[in-house]
Structures are given as structure tokens and as C-alpha cells.
Amino acid sequence: MIRVQPMVEPLDRTVSFYDQIGGEQGLKELVERFYDLMDLEPDFKELRQTHGESLDNAREKLFLFLSGYLGGPDRYISQFGHPRLKARHMPFSIGSVERDQWVICMGRAMMDQNIPEPIMDRMLQSFYGVADWMRNRDD
């Protein structure tokens, strides 16, 4: 079961989440697993439908964005400028179903990548906040 709630487990704040999940290779594997799950699992049907026919562009952009977001190189900003997440996602219909499916799918991908639970919990808490902020449709 994926938990998205404040946690009290101590975390090593001297090392970025990016490094704690395996740096560039760990992040690539996480993003690949996330989109593979989205593409394969019927539980994520609504989320998958928001992405169009191909996931290739989304895979690349999420990897670039998460690199900087998690404390690694700012790859997204160097290529595209400020993320402007809400504005860039306005063309997509995002409600609570899509928000929840995104977070659950990422949680499953993190579990599959054996990301330690305290790190996973903190990252999912952060992701939930961003995903909730991205909603542009009331359900």
C-alpha cells in the first residue's frame, strides 16, 4: 500500500533525492518503469489517456524535469527554461482521478525500483502536492 502522509523517519539531507535513488541511471529506470506501468496497467487508464498516442516525449521531459527537481542537474531548465508546470499542463484535463493515478503509478514504480521507504514516502508527499496543484478540473 502506498502512503502519502507526513512522515517522521529521519532522512539524510546531506545527499539529494537524486543521488539517493541512484543518480542519472536510477532516475532513468524510475521514469521508464513509471511510463511502462502507465502503458500496461488498466488501473491507470484515465492517466494514460491524457498522454496521447506516444509516451516518448513525456518520458524524456519527466526525466529532465525530475533531474533538477530531485537535486540533480537542471536539465529541463537548460533546455526549455522555467518549467511553468501548471501552464504547460493546461491543455490536458487533470482531475482528482488523474492526480491519484499519477501518484499511485509513481509509487508503484518506486517500489519496483526498491527505493527505500522513507525516501519514497517523502518524494510521494511532494509529488502529491504538485499533482494536486496541477488539477484543472473539479470532480
Integer-rounded radius of gyration: 14 Å
Distance between the first and last residues' Cα: 24 Å
Q: Helices and strands: which structural class?
A: mainly alpha
Counted beta strands = 0
Taking all residues together, what is the mean pLDDT?
A: 91
Label the overall shape: globular
Low-pLDDT sequence parts: none
- Element string (H = helix, E = strand): HHHHHHHH
Percent helix, as a range, is 55-70%
The largest β sheet comes out as: none
Number of helices: 8
Family: Belongs to the truncated hemoglobin family. Group II subfamily.
Organism: Advenella alkanexedens
Keywords: Heme, Iron, Metal-binding, Transport
Pfam families: Bac_globin
SSE topology sketch:
Layout: H1 17-20, H2 23-40, H3 45-49, H4 56-69, H5 75-80, H6 85-89, H7 96-112, H8 117-133
